[in-house]
Specification:
This is Acyltransferase 3 domain-containing protein. InterPro entries: Acyl_transf_3_dom, Acyltransferase_3. GO terms for molecular function: acyltransferase activity, transferring groups other than amino-acyl groups. With 395 residues, the chain is mainly alpha-helical. It has one domain. The protein is 74% helix and 0% strand. The protein is built from 18 helices and no strands. Helix 4 crosses helix 9, helix 13 runs antiparallel to helix 14 and helix 17 runs antiparallel to helix 18. The longest helix is centred in the last third of the chain and has 50 residues. The N terminus and C terminus are likely disordered.
Length: 395
């Protein structure tokens, strides 16, 4: 498998842009809760399927729905992570496990911790009371939760439980990104070595672990809830495996999508977007993963989608995408708590979008980029120490 993929690039700029677009979709999804009022948040997220207004119908039953497919965009993050993390393995440039974990801690955990600290400060300062007329997302799922002595340890340990995620709701997905990173070599090695057979074996193993974990969680529900339902690690790891498999067969995918002077890539993206906009009555999470795979395949191949994703504005969006993902909800909530007496909730949501984009740039410069640099320094230092140790042993 590796020999077949020896020309795989370690960096694909179009995928950076794709990550940025997905992050913006998540922002639009959360903003929509403020734009359409309390009822529509339930409608958008699938909790309710009853339509109240013509605007509801247009947004939920037209192609514009893709702009508010936040759950699908998060699924794309998982598939995309599996794809991107596999590329160094295909080139024989994978990091030693210790260095890989250090890199992921600096890439994911440290910016997460900084964002959660800032969000907690504002939550403790501004939150606590319900806001008249605000959406359920604000008044139930966000800064009106009860404070507890378990808040701080839950955040620091990245447990992803009810004591931590309410500070900054999107961070629930980062828990799975970090946990799956810890077992990533166990996922990628069988797929690279044995292809589809390895994929099936890994998939069955993950499903078995998820099933057994779910049974155990049912026996000890309080403990499972406290540590963030760890069995779900194996569930979300399956989305990573999809990305791993796609990376291994990337050349074959590109040969197909290059047909018709790259028209195939555009067709795949449109097909994936269509899958995302359909209301699936059966296995909606699986269908979101299928849509994510189609979109990823189209954007990783030469064609119009790739060229658009490599334009400067989209590349900037990709560069700050993680920061945007981390800061946009606190920005929305700060706006709700400070401006709700003087501005309509819809206006607050609209204003919050450009403010979140600007804040993401600041957060990237002050927090995310320095932690990346720290990660590279620590990885290089670890590699140097390892080389010195090996030289000493040989000598």
């Amino acid at each position: 498998m590796r020999n077949q993929e020896n020309n795989t690039n370690n960096r694909m700029e179009s995928l950076d842009g794709l990550r940025g677009v997905a992050a913006l979709i998540v922002v639009f999804t959360h903003a929509m809760g403020g734009l359409l009022g309390p009822f529509s948040w339930h409608f958008i997220t699938g909790i309710s399927h009853e339509q109240k207004t013509i605007l509801d119908w247009v947004i939920l039953n037209s192609p514009i729905r893709i702009l508010f497919a936040g759950s699908s965009a998060v699924t794309l993050f998982f598939v995309l992570s599996g794809f991107v993390l596999t590329l160094p393995w295909l080139m024989g440039k994978q990091l030693p496990y210790r260095s890989f974990v250090i890199s992921r801690i600096c890439r994911i955990y440290l910016p997460y911790l900084a964002a959660m600290t800032l969000a907690a400060v504002f939550a403790f300062t501004l939150g606590g009371e319900k806001i008249p007329g605000a959406t359920d997302w604000v008044n139930i799922y966000a800064w009106t939760n009860k404070y507890s002595a378990l808040n701080i340890p839950s955040v620091i340990l990245m447990l992803g439980n009810d004591y931590s995620t309410w500070f900054d709701n999107p961070t629930w997905s980062l828990v799975w990104e970090m946990r799956v990173s810890l077992i990533f070599p166990l996922l990628v090695i069988p797929v690279i070595r044995w292809g589809l057979r390895g994929t099936v074996a890994v998939g069955l193993g993950l499903w078995a672990a998820y099933t057994l974990g779910t049974l155990a969680a049912g026996l000890f529900p309080a403990a499972a809830a406290m540590i963030g339902q760890p069995q779900n690690t194996f569930y979300f790891a399956m989305f990573f495996v999809i990305g791993i498999l796609m990376a291994c067969y990337r050349n074959q995918i590109m040969r197909i999508t290059s047909l018709g002077n790259g028209i195939g890539s555009l067709v795949l993206v449109i097909a994936g977007a269509a899958v995302w906009t359909i209301k699936w009555g059966f296995q909606p999470e699986l269908m979101r993963a299928v849509g994510a795979a189609l979109i990823l395949a189209g954007c990783a191949s030469k064609g119009l989608p790739q060229r658009w994703l490599e334009t400067a504005p989209v590349q900037w969006l990709g560069r700050v995408s993680y920061s945007l993902y981390l800061v946009h909800v606190p920005i929305f909530l700060i706006g709700e708590y400070t401006l709700h007496l003087i501005l309509p909730h819809s206006m607050i949501a609209l204003i919050a979008i450009p403010v979140a984009l600007a804040t993401a740039e600041v957060f990237y410069r002050l927090i995310e980029r320095p932690t990346h640099q720290l990660g590279r320094y620590l990885v290089k230092r670890s590699a140097t120490k390892l080389g010195m140790r090996v030289s000493a042993e040989i000598g």
